[in-house]
């Protein structure tokens, strides 16, 4: 379904419910739209079940945009199509220094889950996560699903400052803060990887698959991390 939501944007809705195939379908749809090289396209914002398409109304009439989007959506890959799966790049590996020094909530989360710190780390690094959406901050990828045994709610009182590179858990989601910002996720480590910059933009895209790799303190510092 394609619907106008403002004078400069349309919302493409692929489903009413979240499912495992949607991130890849949304990623493929983004690729299809970007491949059109429309001069009036200004932004694409994928979410769990939708894609927001932002355009410049000074360059194009909304009827033209709607018609163009309908054409692309009708030709875009759907669930079960091999092209959908081929959108995904190789699994992206994100190095993380897990420790109470780098993850101020690691020990308390382990205690709440009745697990050792090492077991929390093992379970967090054992999964392959899907990027469901990009939002909150530039390059912030909402990933899931975390092992239920280490899922934990957001903090009741968010921190006013979370360092860039912080790796957090919120319920069954996990993410890396690409820039310093306020935040309420349970922080369990730090990554030296730069997930966003103004030139290369976001490392992560909806539909990507991610694995976390535990590294030592020395490796973290050698790779450009800061404490």
TrEMBL record:
<keyword id="KW-0547">Nucleotide-binding</keyword>
<dbReference type="InterPro" id="IPR029000">
    <property type="entry name" value="Cyclophilin-like_dom_sf"/>
</dbReference>
<protein>
    <submittedName>
        <fullName>5-oxoprolinase subunit PxpB</fullName>
        <ecNumber>3.5.2.9</ecNumber>
    </submittedName>
</protein>
<dbReference type="InterPro" id="IPR003833">
    <property type="entry name" value="CT_C_D"/>
</dbReference>
<feature type="domain" description="Carboxyltransferase">
    <location>
        <begin position="2"/>
        <end position="204"/>
    </location>
</feature>
<keyword id="KW-0067">ATP-binding</keyword>
<keyword id="KW-0378">Hydrolase</keyword>
<dbReference type="GO" id="GO:0017168">
    <property type="term" value="F:5-oxoprolinase (ATP-hydrolyzing) activity"/>
</dbReference>
<dbReference type="InterPro" id="IPR010016">
    <property type="entry name" value="PxpB"/>
</dbReference>
<dbReference type="Pfam" id="PF02682">
    <property type="entry name" value="CT_C_D"/>
</dbReference>
């Amino acid at each position: 379904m394609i619907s106008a939501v403002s004078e400069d944007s349309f919302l493409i809705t692929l489903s009413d419910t979240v499912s495992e195939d949607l991130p890849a379908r949304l990623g493929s749809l983004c690729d299809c739209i970007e491949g059109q090289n429309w001069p009036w396209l200004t932004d694409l914002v994928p979410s769990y079940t939708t894609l927001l398409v932002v355009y410049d109304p000074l360059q194009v009439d909304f009827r033209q945009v709607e018609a163009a989007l309908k054409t692309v959506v009708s030709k875009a890959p759907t669930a079960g199509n091999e092209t959908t799966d081929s959108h995904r790049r190789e699994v992206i590996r994100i190095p993380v220094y897990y420790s109470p020094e780098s993850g101020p909530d690691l020990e308390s989360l382990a205690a709440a889950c009745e697990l050792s710190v090492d077991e929390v780390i093992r379970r967090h690094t054992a999964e392959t996560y899907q990027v469901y959406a990009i939002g909150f901050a530039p390059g912030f990828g909402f990933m899931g699903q975390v092992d239920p045994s280490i899922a934990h709610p957001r903090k009741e009182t968010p921190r006013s400052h979370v360092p860039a590179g912080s790796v957090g858990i919120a319920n069954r989601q996990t993410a890396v803060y690409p820039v310093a910002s306020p935040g309420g996720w349970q922080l369990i480590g730090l990554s030296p990887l730069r997930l966003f910059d103004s030139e290369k933009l976001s490392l992560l895209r909806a539909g990507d698959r991610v694995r976390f790799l535990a590294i030592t303190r020395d490796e973290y510092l050698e790779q450009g991390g800061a404490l």
